[in-house]
Design goal:
The chain folds into three domains: 87 residues, Helix Hairpins (Orthogonal Bundle); 69 residues, HSP40/DNAj peptide-binding domain (Sandwich), CATH 2.60.260.20; 74 residues, HSP40/DNAj peptide-binding domain (Sandwich). 23% of the residues lie in helices and 18% in strands. It has eight helices and eleven strands. The chain has a four-stranded mixed beta sheet with strand order 6-7-11-10. Strands 1-5-4 form a three-stranded mixed beta sheet. The protein has a two-stranded antiparallel sheet with strand order 2-3. The chain is elongated. The relative contact order is 0.08.
Length: 315
């Protein structure tokens, strides 16, 4: 992404958590791949807004971005914070004017040597040659290469059933990942030795998992919920109807006299917990009446339901 997450979501830097979430939901609904199958750019934008929301919804990462310590991809911008930060540059770097007036070790009565000795692990007196031959105290272990951050967007069905995922690393190699039990949006996986090369060995690859919003499935804890439309005759007389699950469609029995709002449970069709067990799929029935059906109106003419359905509401 490498952009401004605030601009991508169209919110101000002072926006609250509620405003950020509202902006993300609106954009995610508009740009969802299922609604834009013929628009590749929409899929790219969907990925961008999801990544921007991931960063801004994490209070710690948002603060780091606001301070300039990380970029829009969540990668460090430099040593000490700030774009270009580091020795001699950026907001967090050392500048020559910071040491103006320091004679030798520093201003009167101040010995800067002791400060830098502490930073590099040295002490007063003779120093041994550390890694690289520098005049710093003690032999130091050769540094490992840097860690590399990746983001992996996973569909809700794949996340629920822990379907294997393939990711392409910076060096062009691909790895098949086994998603962990107890997967949550924002779960981070560490791939040892798959980061940048260094004198002391490779760093790691850190993969952050993002679970994509779905067109009709939604997560509720370890369960998956779905609203299922049924016809009036199916509700009155009962029926066997097909219902989608994260692992494919199954047949569901609707009992005679079922009302809108009735919830049916499909055991073991939800998300995988850390102990290996799975949540359920909860199916909420919704009776969908046809509009302007004259035959249905004639059939019901003169019939009235004798029950007082609103008595418990006090009206």
């Amino acid at each position: 992404m490498s952009g401004d997450p605030y601009a991508i979501l169209g919110v101000s830097r002072s926006a609250g958590e509620k405003d950020i979430k509202s902006a993300y939901r609106k954009l995610a609904k508009e740009l969802h791949p299922d609604r834009n199958k013929d628009n590749p750019r929409a899929a790219e934008r969907f990925s961008e807004v999801t990544q921007a929301y991931d960063l801004l919804s994490d209070a710690a990462k948002r603060a780091q971005f606001d301070r300039g310590e990380i970029d829009g991809d969540g990668n460090p911008t430099g040593f000490g914070g700030g774009p270009g930060g580091g020795f001699g540059g950026g907001r967090g770097g050392f500048r020559p004017e910071d040491f103006a007036g320091f004679q030798g070790g520093g201003p009167e009565g101040v010995d800067l040597g002791g400060i830098f000795d502490g930073l590099f692990g040295g002490g007063r007196g003779p120093r041994s040659q550390g890694f690289g031959g520098g005049p710093f105290g003690g032999a130091r272990q050769a540094p490992r290469g840097g860690n590399v951050q990746y983001r992996l967007s996973v569909t809700l069905p794949d996340a629920a059933k822990l379907a294997p995922q393939r990711i392409t690393l910076a060096d062009g190699k691909t790895i098949d990942l086994k998603l962990p039990a107890g997967l949550e949006d924002g779960t981070q996986m560490r791939l040892a030795g798959k980061g940048e090369a260094g004198p002391g060995g490779n760093g790691d690859a850190l993969v952050t998992i993002t679970i994509q919003p779905h067109a009709f499935f939604r997560r509720e804890g370890d369960n998956v919920r779905i609203d299922l439309p049924i016809s009036l005759d199916e509700a009155v007389g009962g029926a066997k109807v097909k219902v989608p699950t994260v692992e494919g469609a199954v047949m569901l029995t609707v009992a005679p006299g079922s009302s809108s709002g009735k919830v049916l449970r499909l055991k073991g069709r939800g998300f995988t917990r850390k102990d290996g067990t799975r949540g359920d799929q909860l199916v909420t029935l919704e009776i969908a009446l046809p509009e302007g059906d004259e035959e249905l109106a004639r059939r019901l003419e003169g019939w009235r339901d004798p029950r007082d359905l609103r008595a418990r509401l006090g009206v």
